Amino acid sequence: MKLSLIVPCYNEEGNVEAFYNETEKAFSGVPFDYEYVFINDGSKDKTLENLRKLHQEKKHSNITVVSFSRNFGKESAIYAGLKNSVGDYVSIIDADLQQRPEVVLEMMEILTNNSDLDCVAAYQEKRKENAVLSAFKTCFYKVINLLSEVNLHADASDFRTFTRGMADAIIEMSEYHRFSKGIFSWIGFNTEYIPYEVQERNSGETKWSFTKLMRYAFDGISAFSTKPLQLATYVGMFSSIASIIYMIIVIIKRLAFGDPVSGYATIVALILLIGGIQLFCMGIMGTYIAKTYIQSKHRPIYVAREVLSYDKEEK
Ligand code: UDP
Ligand code: MG
Predict the structure, then answer these.
(1) Closest atom of ligand 1 to CA, residue 11
(2) What lines the ligand 1 site, CB under 6 Å?
(3) Which of 77, 6, 76, 75 is nearest to 40 (CA)?
(4) pLDDT band at 131 (very low <50, low <70, confident <90, very high)
(5) Reading across the β-sheet that carries 304-308, which strands appear in turn?
(6) Which pLDDT value is given to residue 127?
(7) Is the pLDDT of residue 11 over 80?
(8) Candidates 74, 75, 213: which one to mutate for ligand 1, based on the most atoms within 8 Å of Cβ?
């Protein structure tokens, strides 16, 4: 039995070695075989250098390093990790030690003792972030669960361990715009959720700014729901009905009471409002068209510049 640890790394020069050492400490004496699959996601610091050093120095035959030709994002890194791993079980874990390797052992314990389970995912019991961001995230989960066919567990991240069968199902989903949380839910399988305590970052800082998170949230919704596209229909229907009612009122006022039709300000406001709504709906349609356009090109999800693999060396 073998476990593959998939570790996406983007500018993690201060973390890769610490991550390796901590994991070795936690994993000493485990009753199963394991491998590391580090993905260097186009880092601009010494991450690749450190990974190369780790791969050579340790002379361990269980480290694979896949290095991207540029930054493709964590979602692509996870995909590359799955493709380059060989374990019967697969774990996705961050390189910054915010997620402790000991939790992976807990996940493995649950998975191997329960043949009905395919996946154990960890969720943050207490979010260690500011209240505004936390409120936005809660709101995001409510909206996506309402709009889409998938059901996302709030607070559950990519930190999870699952079977090869589930990994293969994820690899099958070769869509370009990837949203892991949605993919995990869409493919089904039996998942158990366990709480974990998120740690402070070992070194460096988070890659997720507020605007990046917002974009990620919108990408997630458009990847798993087409309901926003129907918005134009509802808005159109509502404004047509409202304008018919208003037209009748204006005609009655003119004929019955002889009111002069005035209201320059009203007309300007209405034109601007309707123009705004139309542009907004076109923007939503544009988002979907753009995604269809990119997908139709069938570009690869990532481009690897270099792969250091223990298999290849041994052969
Ligand atoms: N990451 C990546 N590519 C990116 C951004 C992040 O591979 O474009 C990796 C990063 O190196 C880390 C993990 O994804 O191992 C989570 O990133 P981060 O710690 O910045 O996110 P946070 O924990 O703050 O949500
Ligand atoms: Mg982190």
Answers:
(1) 11
(2) 8-10, 12, 41, 71, 73-74, 77, 94-96, 98, 206-208
(3) 77
(4) confident
(5) 191-196, 119-124, 156-163, 89-92, 2-9, 33-40, 63-68, 304-308
(6) 75
(7) yes
(8) 74
Distance 241 CA to ligand 2 centre (A): 50
75 Cα: distance to centroid of ligand 1 (angstroms): 10
β-pairing verdict for 63-68 and 89-92: unpaired
- The answer to whether the beta carbons of residues 86 and 4 sit under 8 Å apart is yes
For the chain, percent of residues with pLDDT exceeding 90 = 61
The three-state secondary structure class of 92 is strand
Decide if 116 contacts 190 (C-beta within 8 A): yes
* Beta-carbon count within 10 A of 208 CB: 11
> Phi and psi (nearest 5°) for 29?
80, 15
Q: Which ligand is nearest to the CA of 11?
A: 1
Cα(97) to ligand 1 centroid in Å equals 11
Instruction: Report domain 3-204+300-314's class.
Output: alpha beta
